[in-house]
Design brief:
Blueprint (H helix, E strand, L loop, with lengths): L17 E5 L7 E7 L2 E12 L12 E8 L15 H14 L11 E11 L4 H15 L8 E9 L2 E4 L3 H4 L6 E9 L5 E4 L7 H31 L2
Helix pairs in contact: 1-2, 2-4
């Protein structure tokens, strides 16, 4: 097992420095910023509002739509092409699926709640930062929610299970690497997102998921702290 010391000297279960703020987009119904290392996500919520085109309307409840965008010069790797991409569309769908278990839109039939997430800077874990920011923004917007969703990536580099992989670890050369984004509901510990890129044994996957429980708890604590600090100033 060659990977015995992380590139940034963190402990195996240690997260990158995190920062969370509420109310960062003034004209939005609700907004939040979430930073994890060099990855920075800004989420803005608009609605509930009338949905267009009309055929998308659901007469029994509102619809949640997520829009994920990385800015052209945000990436640690190659320049991001502006406009929609298959990856952005996939992550937008993943965000919706991760957030839907906590959002209750039954009081808003024929309407839509739009969540826009922009990433001005990235260094791995973008969908996790986007989900964590979006969850806070929805809470700030006053959307009825059963819980907060907290998200982090775990994984493995050359046989070593790690929390919150950096871009350097995701792209570590000539060894087996797995990246496992996880989103979790705080109260029930229900997993609302579980994806995997790479290969990992069942034993190490279970170890990684157990590590994810502790990691998402730290994200949750920061989310709650940011919300409390915002409302204590009002």
């Amino acid at each position: 097992m060659a990977y015995t010391e992380r590139l940034d000297k963190r402990k195996f279960d240690e997260l990158r420095p995190m920062e969370a703020k509420i109310g960062v987009v003034k004209n939005a119904k609700g907004s939040a910023s979430f930073k994890s290392g060099k990855t920075w996500a800004i989420a803005a919520v608009y609605g509930p509002r009338e949905i267009y085109p009309k055929f998308l309307a659901n007469p029994t409840k509102g619809i949640l739509r997520c829009h994920y965008t990385m800015m052209p010069f945000s990436g640690s790797g190659e320049r991001i092409r502006p406009g929609k991409s298959r990856r952005a569309q996939e992550i937008s769908m993943v965000m919706e699926k991760a957030l839907l278990p906590v959002v209750d839109l039954t009081d808003f039939p024929n309407s839509v709640v739009d969540v826009f997430v922009e990433l001005p800077q990235t260094d791995a874990g973008t969908r996790c930062a986007a989900i964590s920011a979006a969850s806070m923004a929805l809470a700030h917007a006053g959307i009825p929610m059963k819980d907060l969703v907290s998200s982090i990536a775990v994984g493995q580099v050359d046989g070593t299970v790690l929390a919150d992989l950096s871009y350097g670890e995701e792209s570590y050369p000539d060894v087996e690497v797995s990246d496992i984004p996880v989103a979790m509901l705080h109260n029930s510990k229900q997993i609302s997102l579980l994806q995997m890129d790479g290969e990992i044994s069942k034993k190490d996957l279970l170890k990684a998921l157990e590590m994810a429980k502790g990691a998402t708890e730290k994200v949750y604590e920061l989310q709650v702290k940011a919300l409390k600090e915002h409302y204590s100033k009002e």
